[in-house]
From TrEMBL:
Residues 1-23 form the signal peptide. This is Uncharacterized protein. It comes from the Eukaryota. Keywords: Signal.
Length: 121
């Protein structure tokens, strides 16, 4: 159950990162999202979402296919997850882990890291 909850949390963070990054990016609208989607699929995941706007003009993630309650709109494989082990209430461990990956030019997480907001955004 804990693994499932953690995977759900990672998926939620990933989805929010995608939506946020696409809304503030200076590159073409969906470039980073498309690269992230290719990376997730290449590593055994599935993404049935697209960036769009609702009838009120708000940007968000929308499914590419009709979905009903309980349907999966995305799956993330372990190869795409950043695991910092047991987080004990401090943000130091995940922060240092992300910083290490950001500073590594060949990070396996590069497509994910590219959708994170930049310092000046």
């Amino acid at each position: 159950l804990k693994v499932r909850m953690r995977a759900t949390l990672y998926l939620a963070v990933l989805a929010c990162s995608i939506a946020l990054a696409c809304s503030i990016s200076t590159k073409p609208k969906n470039y980073e999202y498309e690269e992230l989607e290719k990376w997730v699929i290449a590593n055994g995941g599935m993404v049935n979402t697209v960036i769009g706007k609702n009838s009120k003009g708000y940007r968000g993630l929308f499914t590419k296919v009709a979905a009903k309650a309980g349907d999966k709109v995305a799956t993330i494989s372990g190869a795409c997850m950043l695991n910092t082990g047991s987080i004990t209430g401090t943000f130091l461990t995940p922060t240092l882990t992300v910083l290490r990956e950001l500073l590594h030019p060949d990070s396996r997480l590069k497509p994910y890291l590219n959708v994170l907001p930049k310092r000046d955004e």
